[in-house]
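Researcher: We're teaching a course module on how sequence relates to structure. For the next exercise, students receive a sequence and then see the predicted structure as tokens, so they can try to spot secondary structure elements on their own. Here is the exercise chain.
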Amino acid sequence: MFQKLVTQQRLTSIHYLGTLLVVIGMSSSKVLMSLGTMVLALVFVLGFQLKTTITAFRANKLLVPLLAFVFIHLISLAWTSDFTYAADDLRIKVPLLLLPVFFTVRPIQKATIQTLFLGLFVLTVVAISGYNFLAYQGIIGNYTYIDFREMSLFGSHIRFGLMVAFAAAICLTTFKNTRWQTLAILLFCWLSFYTYYSQVFSGFIAWLIVVFSIGFYSIYKKSKTTAFLSVILLLITVISFSSFFILKSTQLSPAKKQHYHTQTSKGNHYFHDTLSEKNEHGYPIMVNICEVELREEWSKVSKISYDGQDLKHQFLKNTLIRFMDSKNLKKDGEHFKQLSKSDIKAIEKGIANVNDQNIGLLSRLNGLNYQLTNSSDPNGHSLLQRFEFWKTSLQIIKDNWLIGVGVGDVQEAFRRQYKINQTILTKEHQLRAHNSFLTSWVSFGIIGCLIFCWMVCYYLYYYTSKKEILPILFGLILISSFFFEDTLETQMGVTLFAFFYSFFFERGQK
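Model: And here is the predicted structure for the students to work with:
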């Protein structure tokens, strides 16, 4: 009776339903992601057959390194002391075990069904990106934004940036030479614009990887020599641009004589600190300042106290002074009146440079330039904070290089090391490694880090040998994120990795 009700056809249909929920939920809803995973688990239990499962496990070479990485989490419990934190981490990592198992036993074999799910993923990402953009423009909803990172309304802006890049990859590969090609190109153009506009730097790197990898692959099929020469030329261009950008950021221009006035037009005295931090041109910021007039004028245009904090929890008066300096204004009442309403709102949001109001990637590059030029205080600056995270990670690894601190003690290890270092990072900015390779080493030692590298590199090698371009692109996108993020420390990141790691299993086994 039970077998008649639970037929393979019905189980396949329910399996597709679970897959659909995960595909849609990855970019839009944690609830849908969890519900989809539970539906897939139900199918696995109802259709479980020991012999079939063992055969599928033996046939799937990609499952071995992934399961090894999962089990190192469990083994590290032997030297973990904080089991509450460990339990929470393992809860987040559950999809890393379940999804590959589900798709190993019941892979999606029909190419048309795979294409359909990939198309739905693209459409969902496009819909979410469109909603994010319209909301940020104030066309729909009633949202208050402090910076561009809040533009992603349904989850991490970084993880969503990776999804946008992968959706762009799907448009250029899966729907090439199909009746949907024109639509796919249009969607690719939109996703490219969103990547530029949203200022997610890791997303832009992922987008570049997609475009250049597809370009290299297309040239490689015609001429290997031309393809490798193109790579060399590209590397030279990237290194040259990076070197120019870094030198421009870190080398101050020659000092030039500046006029430091003694009194404002109202007769109040200016304050000058010629040894203060420099702007991007190499000139002191804390000069030509009359706080008496600034405080008076600021109170007329804003409800936020001049002596309080802006919306980024920075001292507002410092933000105001830096902003006025970026506009080449003396910091007094007369020049304050030259600020527009949009300037005032930007200062309230914590924007300290007029150029940071610009849209798109160039604004982000300008922000990175400022960080490299003024590196004394890393708080609130993503790149400088990462330097602190990485330095702290290496210090923890130095003392725990063999077996790590265990899955449950990672946060405590960072807290303790920050205290030892007497870091200038505030508590809210004392975060973990923001590098998946370092996090693996801190957590599980050298063996765990090697297992992690084995998992991601073998995945890339496996599909390269099969010449499957889309899984390769996904692998490259995720590996690029591992250098700058703890991608596998959130539900969205874990599900993204686990789902597409296992979604292509049938392709690789053909």
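Model: If you want an answer key for the exercise: The two ends are 35 Å apart (CA to CA). Residues 436-466 form the longest helix (31 residues).
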